[in-house]
């Protein structure tokens, strides 16, 4: 992994250098809750990411070890993107962002259903989801 130019040694600043723009976190979101995605899958998201931004963010996340590319089992023209251990370790952060959003926004039904499960036992949810994501990344 290449050394990143850091603005400071602050852990928040250093972390934001890797995943701190909205597109990177949305890519991580899609991989976390879909488990794997192709380039085309990302382009179909509601947020309508531009192809040049998507390519740039995928490359940056891969270079920083957050995601990995694998051959697509059904097509030599496609690749599958999956989270690495480093990417899966963002799950608690993503859950907290969802809980914060639940407090201040109206969320879609499928996200509300997920948060109902989270609120029952957040630690158990994170543990089980982490295991699921790591099993899928192999």
Structure overview:
- It is a single chain.
- The protein has 138 residues and is mainly alpha-helical.
- The chain has a single domain (11-137), classed as Winged helix-like DNA-binding domain superfamily/Winged helix DNA-binding domain (Arc Repressor Mutant, subunit A, Orthogonal Bundle), CATH 1.10.10.10.
- The chain contains eight helices and two strands.
- The chain has helices at 11-19, 22-34, 39-43, 51-63, 85-88, 91-104, 109-120, 122-137; strands at 67-71, 79-83.
- The chain has a two-stranded antiparallel sheet.
- Helix 6 crosses helix 7 (109-120).
- The longest helix is centred in the C-terminal third of the chain and has 16 residues, at 122-137.
- It starts with 10 loop residues before the first helix and ends with a helix.
Task: Note the main attributes of this structure.
138 residues, mainly alpha, Arc Repressor Mutant, subunit A, two-stranded antiparallel sheet, 8 helices
Strand content: 5-15%
CATH superfamily: Winged helix-like DNA-binding domain superfamily/Winged helix DNA-binding domain
Q: How are the strands of the largest sheet arranged?
A: 1-2
Cα(first) to Cα(last) distance is 21 Å
- Mean pLDDT across the residues is 91
Order of helices and strands: HHHHEEHHHH
CATH architectural grouping:
Orthogonal Bundle
Largest sheet descriptor: 2 strands, antiparallel
Q: What CATH first level would be assigned?
A: Mainly Alpha
Integer count of domains: 1
- Given the structure, what is the number of helices? 8
Specify Rg, calculated over alpha carbons. Answer: 15 Å
Helix content: 55-70%
Structural class by secondary-structure content: mainly alpha
Spans of 5+ residues with little confidence (pLDDT < 50)? none
Shape descriptor reads globular
CATH topology: Arc Repressor Mutant, subunit A
Report the count of strand segments: 2
């Amino acid at each position: 992994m290449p050394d990143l130019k850091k603005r400071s040694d602050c852990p928040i600043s250093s972390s934001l250098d890797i995943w701190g723009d909205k597109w990177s976190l949305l890519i991580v979101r899609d991989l976390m809750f879909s488990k794997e995605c192709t380039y085309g899958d990302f382009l179909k998201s509601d947020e309508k990411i531009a192809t040049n931004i998507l390519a740039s963010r995928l490359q940056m996340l891969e270079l920083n070890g957050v995601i990995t590319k694998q051959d697509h089992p059904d097509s030599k023209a496609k690749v599958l993107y999956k989270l690495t251990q480093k990417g899966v370790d963002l799950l608690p952060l993503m859950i907290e962002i969802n809980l914060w959003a639940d407090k201040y926004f109206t969320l879609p039904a499928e996200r509300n259903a997920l948060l109902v499960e989270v609120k029952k036992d957040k630690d158990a949810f994170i543990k089980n989801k982490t295991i699921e994501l790591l099993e899928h990344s192999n």
